[in-house]
Write a structure and sequence with these properties.
- It is a single chain.
- The protein is α+β, with helices and mostly antiparallel strands.
- The protein folds into 2 domains: 4-130, no CATH class; 137-199, no CATH class.
- The protein is 33% helix and 19% strand.
- It has 8 helices and 8 strands.
- It has helices at residues 4-8, 54-61, 85-90, 137-152, 157-161, 166-174, 179-185, 190-199, and strands spanning 17-20, 27-33, 51-52, 69-73, 76-80, 98-101, 123-128, 132-136.
- The strands form 2 sheets. Strands 5-4-6-7-8 form a 5-stranded mixed β-sheet. A 3-stranded antiparallel β-sheet has the order 1-2-3.
- The radius of gyration is 20 Å and the shape is elongated.
- It binds zinc ion.
Amino acid sequence: MITLPKMIYKNPERGNVKGKCVFCTETTEYGFKKVFSGNFTGYNRLFEGNCICEYCNAFFREQKYRKSNFIVTKDNVNFLKRVEILENLLNLPNPPFFIYLTFTYQKQGWLGNFDRISYSGKRFYICTEKNVIYVEIEKLIGYIEFAKELREYKIPKKDMLSELSVNSLKKLEEAGKRDLKEKLEEIDNKNLWEVIVYGIE
Ligand SMILES: [Zn+2]
């Protein structure tokens, strides 16, 4: 099975614990003891097993993967600033790839989701620190266009994610764009919408 850590690390440092990895469920001859620091909070996202495989260990020990947005392919790790997220989602690399986005730059949101590799640029996964989102490219494009439109009318991001304030409604009415209110209420992939609003300027 291809996993996120295996895409990045070709020759990771080896341990000497044999068994099943709690991060990816793969069996290994070269794993490490499952030892976590006192502030580790991901226990509920671990699988059954007795060790951490050499690939997951290398990934887990590297702090930058917790503190970054990134798109990983077999030969590249592309770290993204928030403002670069949407253009990169619209110009995805050749599959397979793994997308991770963080809102707080603190959580190990990829835990439990190392297998969410995408094998198509038309239907793919975005792993965020909160959830894994299944994305259809047409929907993504439509949401980005709609988000841009709302920003043109100076609708705050907060309103885009909950409901329109009196002030925002007034802006739309004055522009003759009251129909955008209904369109906002019809957003059905809320998790994807959250990503788009996060990335939009
Ligand atoms: Zn593993």
